[in-house]
Write a structure and sequence with these properties.
- By secondary structure, the protein is of the alpha/beta class.
- It has two domains: 202 residues, no CATH class; 118 residues, no CATH class.
- Helices cover 58% and strands 9% of the residues.
- The protein has 14 helices and seven strands.
- Strands 2-3-5-7-6 form a five-stranded mixed beta sheet, with helices on both faces. Strands 1-4 form a two-stranded antiparallel ribbon.
- The longest helix is centred in the middle third of the chain and has 30 residues.
- The protein starts with a strand and ends in a 5-residue tail after the last helix.
């Protein structure tokens, strides 16, 4: 192997090369996990241009960021690259076009402008050729072999953790299985902050780009499966949810809540899905409800979800052996949010 390889070769290796196991994994529940080359390129460029957001940090007094090993190696390799013209060009592009990272992701992943936000549409004609130039010109040394293997192991580990979440959710809800929507793709991204969860919409397709933390990525993937489960159950039971319906009359006057939820049914669906995902995490992490429930309720309230306590009461009153919709209908009629 030559002493240096192009980022194109590296990214191709990460997504699977002929003769190697491709880095595309599918869980039994239908969660599609893909290492996307464009996501890798975008965040490699962002890190090279100075992107340093990180939720994992050392202890005080320094509180220095703790990057994933793959991110560390990419940052170092780009710093040492002989050809810096493409990096500088992308740095200028980022500086001259301030915008949400989700818009940059949408622009990088799209094959055309259809369905893109105005911000992503504006970025796409500038970003795509700049990333192509970056891929062709920037060379990475020495990290070629280890990065591909580390990325594979990272994706495999995420797959195992997601499978555990889905299996535990099915057991707690008394369902044969919890299935992921076919529209969802999960993209592991060790080049971003550990706890980052970024959602990209492409028509009916949803791309969940997740950082390398334990907990947040699998929780986000589970929520996509739980929402349809509870949406169906709430549709059948909301007519009897007198206390929740009364509470919604006050909730819908809050601008943040009204902007995110069209009606009380959708608000209750989200409350139950979040509560169920939390209960799954609690069991797998061997935490006790009495020690964690109030923290969860407070965190949900900060995000605009004020029915977390009521949702936990509903789930705690459930009979796992009873049909979910029928059981919820009886419980929701009595619970106070």
């Amino acid at each position: 192997m030559s002493s240096s390889v192009t980022l194109l070769a590296l990214a191709s290796a990460l997504t699977g090369a002929p003769g190697d196991a491709p880095l595309r994994l599918l869980t039994p529940e239908g969660v599609d996990i893909v290492a996307d080359e464009q996501v890798f390129l975008l965040f490699a460029a962002m890190n090279g241009a100075g992107y340093a957001e990180e939720s994992a940090r050392q202890g005080p007094p320094l509180l220095a960021p703790v990057y994933h090993p793959v991110r560390n190696e990419v940052r170092e390799a780009i710093r040492k690259a002989k050809e810096q013209g493409a990096v500088e060009a992308l740095k200028r592009l980022f500086q001259e076009n301030p915008g949400e990272i989700e818009d940059y992701l949408a622009a990088a992943l799209a094959s055309d402008d259809k369905g893109l936000s105005p911000g992503a549409q504006k970025l796409r004609p500038k970003l795509v050729p700049a990333l192509e130039k970056f891929r062709e010109e920037v060379e990475l040394a020495k990290v070629f072999d280890v990065l591909a293997e580390k990325q594979r192991e990272h994706a495999k580990d995420l797959k195992v953790r997601i499978e555990k979440r889905y299996a535990e959710a099915a057991a707690q809800l008394g369902l044969p299985a919890v299935r992921c929507p076919l529209s969802l793709t999960v993209v592991p991204n060790p080049l971003d902050s550990h706890d980052s969860i970024r959602l990209v919409r492409q028509g009916d397709r949803r791309i969940l780009v997740v950082g390398p933390a334990n907990g947040a990525p699998e929780n986000a993937a589970l929520l996509f499966a739980l929402r349809p489960v509870f949406e169906e159950a709430v549709k059948k039971s909301y007519a009897n949810a007198k206390n929740f319906k009364t509470s919604w009359e006050g909730m819908k006057t809050v601008r943040k809540i009204a902007a995110a939820y069209p009606d009380g049914e959708s608000y209750l669906t989200e409350a139950l899905a979040q509560a169920a995902a939390y209960r799954v995490a609690l069991k797998l992490e061997n935490r006790l409800p009495k020690d964690a429930d109030e923290d969860f309720i407070d965190a949900q309230a900060k995000d605009g979800q004020r029915w977390a306590r009521g949702a936990l009461r509903v789930l705690d009153a459930r009979d796992p052996k009873a049909p979910l919709a029928d059981d919820l209908s009886k419980i929701i009629a009595k619970v106070i949010p």
